[in-house]
Amino acid sequence: MLEVESVSYCYDQSRILHEISFMVEAGELVCVLGPNGCGKTTLLKNILGLLTPSAGSVRIDGEDVQKLSPKKLAQVMGYIPQAHTPPFPYKVFDVVLMGRTAHLSSLALPNKKDEEIAYESLAKLNITHLKDKIYTKLSGGERQLVLIARALAQQPKILIMDEPTISLDFGKQNVVLEHVRLLSRKGISILMVTHDPGHALFCADKVVTLKKGRLLKIGLPQDVISEDSMRDMYDTEVRIGKFKLPDERTICVCVPVPKPSEICMSA
């Protein structure tokens, strides 16, 4: 599926990434986890073909993304940014229908099949009731779900998500993450970048951890995300606990524990 092989990236004389390697298999949800400034965004841009690796390669089904045309790349890879506000008040259905652009020839208009695919993408996320709403007037959580639906309408082989919940409140974060988790269970490959270990514990099949542009560990969330590893990565003490959800799933949560010296008390 997606293979990142020995990817390094240098900016001027500074090396930002150091020989990063991992894979995302078909139907797998992989989280790239690390603190701010660790190279997550640079790695994502290399994967998306926006930057060219200084060494190594990124391949989808054996094809180097650097050799794919923008149209072909859009057909195999869907991208969900952190946040997005278009300059015009499009209806939600029109925003999702834009995902079909990668499959249209120049000057062609979407046909009935394209419209059906766009509607199915809304249905997968249970947001068909929003189809006639104005996108710019939606809440942040609703806009993120619409962006995911637009990416699904591309019918890509893999979805790339750049901290898709970073601008959302606590409740909306969990709504979006649950939809992401369910999509992966339906066979969609997903690569999600996050700085929050709790998000990775909640929905990931595999976790890739980075620090200072270097690969630390790859593996199952419960193996990679430990109190010791998170302390080393984020330079803070954490505690990890387990909770059972109403659907009988048991999930882990990661809670930071500040040092007494880091807490300022005022009268």
TrEMBL record:
Keywords of this entry: ATP-binding, Nucleotide-binding, Transport
CDD domains: ABC_Iron-Siderophores_B12_Hemin
Protein name as catalogued: Putative ABC transporter ATP-binding protein
Domain ABC transporter: 2-237
InterPro entries: AAA+_ATPase (IPR003593), ABC_transporter-like_ATP-bd (IPR003439), ABC_transporter-like_CS (IPR017871), Metal_Ion_Import_ABC (IPR050153), P-loop_NTPase (IPR027417)
Organism lineage: Bacteria, Bacillati, Bacillota, Clostridia, Eubacteriales
A Pfam family this chain is assigned to: ABC_tran
DNA-binding in keyword set: no
Molecular functions (GO terms): ATP binding; ATP hydrolysis activity
